[in-house]
Amino acid sequence: MILAIAGGTGSGKTTVARSLSKMYADSREYKVLTVSMDSYYKNIHEEAFDNYDHPEAFDMGLLHSDLEGFQNHSSMPLRRYSYQTKERDVTGEVKQVDLLILEGLYPFFDPKVRAMCDWKIYLDIEEKIRLKRRVTRDIEERGITVEENMTMIHGFVKKMHQRYVSLQKQHADRVYHTHEKVENLTIAY
What we know:
The chain is 38% helix and 22% strand. It is of the alpha/beta class. It has a single domain, classed as P-loop containing nucleotide triphosphate hydrolases (Rossmann fold), CATH 3.40.50.
């Protein structure tokens, strides 16, 4: 089974995915794999692309291929993208997973990938809250300054959300609107 979580930058996708992963692993004893779409950013040498919020920044063909492997019960490579080197690499592989949780900006964007998702959740969080979370995360985890973030937010992040990310709501099985802490949202599951 593939459960997909979409939403704008800073909406809490990773937090919800981690909470769901723990819940399914603890209560149902599922073997759960959480996959971030960040792991499918194109390598810098594949295409010079600085807009990480654009759908074309992702290698959807590779994601589709990996998900097919998962659905066919073969091994699935574990991928990781480095924001420092702007390169994607394979860090291992996994077999025999009961539930794959795919989280990111665009899990419902590509029709082939969307069709593979058994359950689709969209997190619709107020823009001001999302962007504040993004800046905090990027400073702490990615070494991106406030100034760099503001340039990206005003340059393309807001535009990409309106043009592409938010349109995925129409494909979601469930849309969550909340201004609470994301940790509280997972109680509903």
